[in-house]
Amino acid sequence: MKNLGLGSGPEFDRIRAIIGRLGPDASGIGDDCAVLPIGATNLLASIDCSIEGVHFRTDWLTEAEIGFRAAAAALSDLAADGAEPIGVLVSLGLSGPGSGSQGVEIMAGVGAACRAVSAQVLGGDLVRSDKIIVDICVLGTAERPVRRAGAQAGDSVWVTGTLGGAGLALSELRGGREFDAALRARWARPEPRIKAGQWLASHGATAMIDISDGLAQDAGHIAAASGVALDIPLEQVPCWPGVNPMAAVVSGEEYELLATLPQAFDDAAKFVKATGLPLTRIGKCVTGSGARLTLRGLVLPPVAGFQHFDE
Amino acid sequence: MKNLGLGSGPEFDRIRAIIGRLGPDASGIGDDCAVLPIGATNLLASIDCSIEGVHFRTDWLTEAEIGFRAAAAALSDLAADGAEPIGVLVSLGLSGPGSGSQGVEIMAGVGAACRAVSAQVLGGDLVRSDKIIVDICVLGTAERPVRRAGAQAGDSVWVTGTLGGAGLALSELRGGREFDAALRARWARPEPRIKAGQWLASHGATAMIDISDGLAQDAGHIAAASGVALDIPLEQVPCWPGVNPMAAVVSGEEYELLATLPQAFDDAAKFVKATGLPLTRIGKCVTGSGARLTLRGLVLPPVAGFQHFDE
Asked: Confidence band (pLDDT; 50, 70, 90) for A1?
């Protein structure tokens, strides 16, 4: 089987089995977005499903936040390719009678996330479901999409923003503790890094991914797709206030961008000016395989990321 | 609110409420596909969600049939616009441990439905869910997409194939009765009418829809979107063997095409030659509103279609 650009883990084993069975009916699966040349540009498409009890809890988020978060997660895949969003199609599963206003509020959240990145709600399907389902297909365009493959030995590894906020919020919610408005916003209304992705794409990014499974695992996806090793000393990882780097690198649903850039790149200050976000060099690409996270020079054992299947 | 091209019914009331709240964030919702001009052509996109216990039962269909049927239903929306399929993105919800082979079989069915119309599986998402979910976003292109709006007074109303087989199969399954292989294939592996849709689009179709909610209701959608009335004598509706026209017009999930064509159109024989399918003139467009189904000259009361919400 060809290199699918997926790291290790039971969820990815399942995806590999499906792609193996599909054979020639499948093409290009395993990156953030599918890329389809149309006319002089490329159409990018991705789908991302959020389910009540798995991806969100109705006692932790308002209905509008459920919609916003689901849309932001899906739009983040466009950011990871440096794409310009067009819009979204949404399948919404609701439990039936009485859930009409719930659907309106969830879709208002979807609409707000779209508006923030100049995307439109293009269509949808409304179905009956015991659990709330918000499945979002995103469409965008990119003249030069940045894929997971493309990182080369010698490239530097960079990350936008700070990591660990999402994991911290989840931990506080699980413990029944309150937390401040900045952390709440970070967690409930994550901002897909569309402008950051476009900026990095136009400034030479060789590979890119959004951090949805946790930095450790997503770095592994870039390593697998590119056929290089990513060396990342934890001391260099920018962390959300109060979060230690061991927690930051396994925090999923961060929606920051992890990018590789040529070693000569030194325009981080211009990036900050253009996007208002930090851009931090956290490591380098070397010959080898996998993401190698180190602390005080010691290599960490393989770290499990955010998994939906726990076999 | 603008005319959304939707007939009456509680599901459509919900969709109208959502679109009203989205305001300018939504665009063009209410037809079979979203249409996006890209370069010299149009991208068409639609999403269609199938859920265990609502859209299918695992004791009535094999896993491959579940996947085939879900993909065929989604691809049928491309047929309704006369589009050429590109591919699909699939969100697949499975119940977790042990469901790996189930996912492979469902996706093999999706792949078979795609292969039959030269579409590819472009991407997907795999999530944990108590009930099986197969949500499919379809992408295609059309230089001149045929919409629900466009029917004019004087046009003739045509339908492909024969209607009522899906309803008959469902009734036999509910009654625990066996039925023949032809009906089983009709129901378990419906064929999206891609070639038929393209043929009708290139031969002057003024409006088109696929029959998923039942002819009575889908004719109402064309009437609402086009601002005309559709007069359809039941005596003219082509029925599956053993099905009476009263049952045929409320049979959902038929995936035949309902099209309006200029009165002068008389190339049905060429259509049959090109597609192998019957094409039957079942009525005409007149000034007025709604679908008016008649039997022996008497107008039937409004007929409820296939509904997922039963308030």
From this structure: very low
Q: What residue has token string 């699909």?
A: B88
Determine the distance in angstroms separating the CA of A53 from the nearest CA of chain B, rounded to an integer: 9
The answer to whether the beta carbons of residues A167 and A212 sit under 8 Å apart is no
Strand partners, A125: A91
Helix (H, G, I), strand (E, B) or coil at B50: strand
Question: Which phi and psi (to 5°) does residue B3 adopt?
Answer: -65, 120
More reliable by pLDDT, B231 or A20 = B231
Segment A102-109 shows an average pLDDT of 94
Closest CA to A282 of A261, A267, A302: A261
- Read off the tokens for A289: 């395989």
For A89, the closest of B17, B34, B129 (CB atoms) is B34
Rounded Cα distance between B267 and B272, Å, is: 9
Burial class (CB in 10 A: 0-12, 13-18, 19+), B109: buried
Q: Which of B196, B219, B204, B197 is nearest to B261 (CA)?
A: B204
**Mean per-residue pLDDT for A62-66?**
96
Checking ipTM against 0.85, whether it exceeds it is yes
User: Inter-chain contact B103–A48, Cβ cutoff 8 Å?
Assistant: no
pTM of the model: 0.90
Residues 117-176 on B with a CB inside 8 Å of A are 120-131, 133, 135, 137, 139, 141
What domains can be seen in chain A, in order of their start residue?
A: 31-141 (3.30.1330.10), 156-299 (3.90.650.10)
- What is the pLDDT confidence band of residue A301, given thresholds at 50, 70 and 90? confident
